[in-house]
Write a structure and sequence with these properties.
It contains four helices and five strands. It is of the alpha/beta class. The protein has one domain: 3-Layer(aba) Sandwich (Glutaredoxin), CATH 3.40.30.10. The longest helix has 16 residues. The radius of gyration is 12 Å and the shape is globular.
Length: 108
């Protein structure tokens, strides 16, 4: 995880994501998930490139099953964009960087 990507859990999710003053890209992942490991460097890159415009966080679904359940995470990686406390967009599975960028650009 880069120094611009923050791990959040069930205790910090509301503060870091729902109450954020800028859009938040949330990566729901797990350590054993191969596609999650493929997406991770892309998420890190996006955090660096959009550091002024968005916040980027990761939620380990194995350690935060309540959050995973709350957001109906059935497959990982699931990458969602939250704005003003609401989930506004997202995609499931490993995707090319351009797809994540186009999602982000719609909201910043």
């Amino acid at each position: 995880m880069s120094d611009r990507v923050y791990a959040v859990n069930e205790n910090t999710f509301n503060q870091e994501v729902l109450n954020s003053d800028k859009p938040v890209l949330v990566d729901f992942w797990a350590a054993w998930c191969g596609p999650c490991r493929m997406v991770s460097p892309i998420i890190d890159q996006l955090a660096g490139e959009y550091t002024e415009k968005i916040k980027v966080v990761k939620v380990n679904v194995d350690e935060n099953s309540q959050l995973a359940s709350q957001y109906d995470i059935m497959s990982i990686p699931s990458v969602f964009l939250f704005k003003d406390g609401k989930k506004v967009d997202g995609m499931i599975g490993a995707r090319p960087k351009q797809m994540f960028e186009s999602m982000i650009k719609k909201y910043v």
